[in-house]
Design brief:
Structural class: alpha/beta
Number of strands: 9
Shape: globular
Distance between the termini: 5 Å
């Protein structure tokens, strides 16, 4: 059976605020564990008014506190923005508070623009140290040695599971070499999905954390009771993608009836390429699309983005997805 999980962007919606976005994310997690989802991840983004998860470890603690069994984690922490010791301290603390439920996905990109990167006091060259920083994190989570003078308290011995995230071949190579689970961001970088998975599996070396390759695939899935309604709900995400191309990273917008009135011909081509792996429709459409994706990729897990404006409709989307995927992969 293919596991299903959620990547929530904690989207701030028009007419709403960051607190509302975070409370809604927490509510989704509480429902998702009842519907059989394995994990609930949030991502680190900075200087984006429409995304409320910049303080990622704080958000993870808030969501974990509102749920009981679902794994909660980062999809991901952009490690070049941080000291590995500080991240170990934060996630070691989370693991102490919510034992057996915390994941730490690690990305190499800054998750922001270059000007904001300067405000974070990190230079572009920090990404060059990503492999070394991952190894340093592993060291802090391992049991402390008698002669170890620097410890990330209370991380030592917590063995928080690390994931490598990627949208290109680099993460695939690193995840394989380190023997870590790998999650590919095909929800916004679909072109590299199959080559990256092939590289990861070819390069995989068993580790203390993982004996065999484990690949998760990020995918946009939006479900509703009819194909037409799902396509209408999907216009929220389509507009968000177009706004990125326009350099406008604003709030999430309500769906519209005619997406062609919003984008130009060139923007349509760009957005459709970005969203090429999306599965949008009624349960039967979702079931067929998921079956094809799993068969094509051999994914062990799907990490699902369902960017729906209305909270009740988003809950319904995740519920229908769980039913459809369960029927497909069970």
């Amino acid at each position: 059976m293919t596991a299903i999980s959620i990547l929530d962007l904690a989207r701030v919606r028009e007419g709403g605020d960051a607190r509302g976005a975070l409370e809604q994310a927490r509510d989704v997690a509480a429902h998702a564990e009842k519907w059989g989802y394995t994990r609930f991840w949030v991502a680190e983004h900075h200087n984006m008014p429409g995304i409320a998860s910049a303080a990622t470890s704080v958000v993870i603690g808030f969501i974990a506190g509102g749920s009981k069994t679902i794994r909660v984690g980062a999809g991901g922490i952009m490690l070049p923005n941080h000291s590995p010791m500080v991240i170990a301290e934060q996630f070691g603390t989370l693991a102490q508070l919510y034992p057996g439920r915390i994941d730490l996905g690690l990305g190499r990109a800054p998750g922001t623009d270059q000007l904001t990167l300067q405000a974070l006091r990190r230079g572009p060259e920090a990404a060059e140290h990503f492999p070394r920083d991952v190894l340093e994190l592993q060291h802090y989570f391992a049991p402390a040695q008698d002669d170890q003078r620097i410890q990330a308290v209370p991380a030592a011995g917590m063995q928080v599971p690390l994931w490598v995230l990627g949208s290109s071949n680099f993460g695939a190579m690193l995840g394989g070499e380190l023997g870590l689970p790998y999650a590919f961001a095909s929800h916004f970088a679909p072109d590299y999905l199959l080559p990256a998975l092939e590289i990861y599996r070819e390069r995989f070396k068993p580790s203390a954390q993982l004996a065999a390759p484990y690949a998760a695939v990020g995918v946009n899935i939006i479900a509703a009771d009819s194909d037409a309604e799902a396509r209408r709900l999907a216009t929220t995400q389509q507009m968000s993608v177009v706004n990125i191309f326009r350099g406008q990273r604003g709030l999430s917008q309500p769906p519209i009836d005619d997406i062609d009135s919003y984008w130009s011909d060139m923007e349509k081509i760009q957005a459709q390429r970005w969203l090429a792996r999306s599965i949008v429709g009624a349960p039967a459409t979702i079931s067929a699309g998921v079956k094809d994706l799993v068969a094509e990729t051999g994914a062990n897990e799907l990490i699902i983005v369902s960017d729906v404006f209305d909270h009740a409709a988003r809950l319904r989307s995740f519920e229908l997805i769980a039913e459809a995927v369960g029927a497909t992969t069970g």
